[in-house]
UniProtKB/TrEMBL annotation:
This is Undecaprenyl-phosphate glucose phosphotransferase. NCBIfam families: EPS_sugtrans. The chain crosses the membrane at residues 6-25, 45-64, 76-95, 235-257. The keyword Transferase applies. It comes from Aquimarina addita. Keywords: Membrane, Transferase, Transmembrane, Transmembrane helix. Belongs to the bacterial sugar transferase family. Residues 230-412 form the Bacterial sugar transferase domain. Its main location: membrane. It is a multi-pass membrane protein. It is found in: Membrane. Pfam families: Bac_transf.
Amino acid sequence: MFETNLTDYFLFSVYVSIVWTILSIKNKFYEIERFYKITHTLASLFSQFLIFGLILYAFIGFFKQPGISRLEIAKYFGSVTALIAFFKFLFLYLLNKYRTVFGGNYRNVVVIGDNKKTDQLIEIFEGKLEYGYKFQKKFCVRNESFDLDDCFNFIVDNDIDEIYCSVAELSNDQLREIVNFTDNNLKVLKFIPDNKDIFTKKLIFNYYGYVPILSFREIPLDHPINKFLKRSFDITLSLLVLICILSWLTPLIFLLIQIESKGPVFFKQRRNGLDYKEFYCYKYRSMKSNTTGNQTTKGDNRVTKVGRFIRKTSIDELPQFINVLKGDMSVVGPRPHMVKHNEDFVHKVDKFMVRHFVKPGISGLAQVSGFRGEIETNKDIVNRVKYDIFYIENWSLLLDIKIVILTVVNAIKGEEKAY
């Protein structure tokens, strides 16, 4: 297109790519919510390409390229706009057809409350199949037979994904019970608001048709762009560690381990990850073979001399980059616990299950904030959960990078609870 006018194809390509990426993240261009209308997509396209067009023409002055034809840039801009708009609408059309014809990509929902707004919402669920919601049941709070426990049992037994509550019909105690239940059972909770003040924390406000909906918790990693950024960061860092460190360190660790304790170089253990699904977490073996899986304590005689060193420096955690590449874990996230410990914590620690809304990590905000290693008191696990929930609700790529740097610094310095 710019054969006679553009002097540096590489510079132009890099410029366009960076500009497009930044704009897409800023405008949330690739995020698609189920309840978005055509007008929202059109507005998104207009906002994206209006700014993109202005910055595209700025290339001429910024990089001093007066020879570039303005007409050729206009043709390029028009072609890109038409192509991306076509594929965006095609994707939305195919996704809607997939939901309406094949019943795929759906979420099971229940509604708690019986009034005009809940009836309108149910009509939307049942009438707009392209949204991808399957309405399962309405619970009438004003009925004498209404029991929250029956409601909770139905939600668990029928694998319900989202719960919509009419705030006008629920008491504060009932709302608190529902919030605790959804947090501890990995369910998405949304509110149909009235004029009450329900919670002091920031809520997310959307419309399904003409029905206003409040979401109790927004998780940044649910957004496709953020997922892509985090996964790209995970894969890049994992490949660097595997190629540059584990490729030569693993044979060396194997030889050192064999001197004290014959057996495999790797140790694997069942842990709970995203959505509480189990996976095998890998470590360098730091204990004698055939030891029990109880939590390690200070001065534990099961730990070998080599094991004590690699635990102190956190080297034993490095094989978890294999878990990251497999997609079971992330570089940064809530630390995964042993399955039997989780089963205990679920009943003892409120909102413990919220940690499983995202992938577990090799390191996490709780760990670099002083809550790593052995859980000696209830305060340790409670604070760990608080930091984990803060991380989940406030994730950013910069926060991940900061946690990685602090983890490396702490490993070099050595930590009191690294045993």
